[in-house]
Design goal:
4 helices; 137 residues; alpha/beta; 6-stranded mixed sheet
């Protein structure tokens, strides 16, 4: 694990695989951290430079006491890539991470190679449902 400071905030990241391998950015689901991807790392790191991070409000990354937008979470992902000198990365996102991927593909398509968006949606459900999930997490 490593820390990366972006805009005065410190994000928890992990990088596995060879430096020269194609970059693969992985974005976690609500209520999880970068360790959710641990079982996939041995296989993926043989071919990719796997970049995992705790999204804002999760794990050891910053958790300001205010709402976060998908656009803000996507900006964090881009800032992590920028800080690491990665111009383009493949992307895997699960649930909330998939929503981040959709935003990136819509607004910064040139930065994303192939993408896997799993168990996600293009629209969030009612605010009450999400607020209950957030409170539980």
């Amino acid at each position: 694990m490593a820390e990366l400071t972006i805009g005065g905030e410190t994000f928890n990241i992990a990088i596995d695989g060879a430096d020269g391998a194609p970059a693969l950015l992985m974005s976690n689901s609500l209520g999880t951290n970068l360790s959710m991807w641990d079982p996939q790392i041995p296989a993926l790191s043989k071919r990719f430079r796997v970049i995992r991070y705790d999204s804002r409000g999760h794990g050891a990354s910053p958790a300001p006491q205010r709402p976060y937008s998908i656009a803000e979470l996507a900006a964090d992902a881009l800032a992590i890539l920028d800080a690491l000198g990665v111009a383009k990365a493949h992307f895997v996102g699960l649930s909330k991470g998939g929503m981040v991927g959709q935003w990136l593909l819509t607004h910064h398509r040139a930065r994303i190679g192939r993408a896997v968006l799993a168990n996600t949606a293009s629209q969030m459900g009612p605010a009450q449902m999400w607020n209950e999930r957030i409170a539980a997490v």
